[in-house]
Amino acid sequence: MLLENNLTQAENGEEIDSIGYAIAHKDDTFSQFNFKRHSMQDHDILIEILYAGICHSDIHSTRSEWKDGIYPMVPGHEIVGKVVAIGKNVSKFKIGDYAGVGCMVNSCGECEACKISQEQFCENGKVVFTYDCLDYFHDNRPTYGGYSNNIVVSEKFAIIVPKNAPLDKVAPLLCAGITTYSPLKFSNIKNGNKVGIAGFGGLGVMALKYAINMGAEVSVFARNDLKKYDAIRLGAKALYTNTKNIKDKFDFIISTIPTSYNIHDYIDLLKFGGELAIVGLPPINVSPKIDLTKLVLSAGKKVYGSLIGGIKETQEMLDFSIKHNIYPETEIININEIDKAYNDLTSGKARFRYVIDMNSIQAYS
């Protein structure tokens, strides 16, 4: 009934009724939230969401740990589903195809960054993130994410998903996959490199899998040894619970850590010419600082940040992942289990990437 109503609305150019799970303020828990998506335009597609991954960014955002959030907030930027309606000028998809949506749903398309498919760095400040953002192209209305039954998005910002792909495992690739794939490619990780993975949650697992596929020898740094079995099983040389007394020096370290830590502990582990890529963003009030004196004395080591990846590279990442059978370790949950999943993720109890089965939204709606 929900889908039939949405199809009628799409055909008539009306706003699209949606059911999501939202949080009303930073200290709230999740509950059902009914809202409307903007009407479909000529280049838009309507996706019936089948799976949505839970990212640690969702937790930071809902709790206003990076900035004051826009509430009510429907998180979720790891989205995969079926295309059920298309605008008249859509050429990339047809009805019945599968599509993914990651962290962005629009940008200016005109600046140099957008022209080279680095839309996340839109120089005109018009990048529209999938949730907790004002949509500059639709009357500045707030965007709502993937913890919902549908989404309307421009075909330019949708990722082609093959029909034979495991959709529940594809969903987390739209953030966890591209966030780790992009810096590994940027730093040209290759056979024989020594790579360190700092933080072994959803991002860390993907970084490990990609780096091993690229031929690297990989070690993992985690806050405890609860995930040592998983790390070794997935191909890590070792799992360390601190950075002290480590003799190895690394060509590359990627930090996925979402909490406070000492960046220099990892800079000290780099070889001369080694690179530290930072993709984890702790809450702003405990954000790590770089000591310039220590950095200068570290001589010849590079530190850089990496922010997801553009649409072109995201498609490349997905194609690469499917070709090489690289997927996250996932656990499927129902829509009413989001609060528990958040607690597990912040307490270190979660072993794998949580993915919401969106068929459950109707059962609880």
Which runs of at least 5 residues are low in confidence (pLDDT < 50)?
none
Estimate what percentage of residues fall within beta strands: 25-35%
Q: Pairing-aware structural class of the strands and helices?
A: alpha/beta
Biggest beta sheet attributes: 7 strands, mixed
Give the integer mean of the pLDDT values: 96
User: Count of DSSP E strands?
Assistant: 19
General form: globular
The DSSP helix count reads: 12
Q: Helix content range of the residues, please?
A: 25-40%
The rounded distance between the terminal residues' Cα atoms is 12 Å
Radius of gyration: 20 Å
Walk me through the structure.
The protein is an alpha/beta fold and 365 residues long. Helix 5 (176-186) crosses helix 6. It has helices at residues 2-11, 56-62, 112-115, 167-170, 176-186, 202-213, 228-233, 263-267, 292-298, 311-323, 338-347, 360-363, and strands spanning 16-22, 31-37, 44-53, 79-86, 98-101, 104-106, 128-129, 134-135, 141-142, 150-154, 159-161, 194-198, 217-221, 238-240, 250-255, 270-278, 302-305, 330-333, 353-357. The radius of gyration is 20 Å and the shape is globular.
Key features of this structure:
single chain; 365 residues; alpha/beta; 7-stranded mixed β-sheet; 6-stranded parallel β-sheet; 12 helices; globular
In short:
The chain has 365 residues and is an alpha/beta fold.
Blueprint of the fold:
Blueprint: H1 2-11, E1 16-22, E2 31-37, E3 44-53, H2 56-62, E4 79-86, E5 98-101, E6 104-106, H3 112-115, E7 128-129, E8 134-135, E9 141-142, E10 150-154, E11 159-161, H4 167-170, H5 176-186, E12 194-198, H6 202-213, E13 217-221, H7 228-233, E14 238-240, E15 250-255, H8 263-267, E16 270-278, H9 292-298, E17 302-305, H10 311-323, E18 330-333, H11 338-347, E19 353-357, H12 360-363
Parallel strand pairs: 12-13, 12-15, 13-14, 15-16, 16-17, 18-19
Antiparallel strand pairs: 1-2, 3-4, 3-10, 3-19, 4-5, 5-11, 6-7, 8-9
Helix pairs in contact: 5-6, 5-10
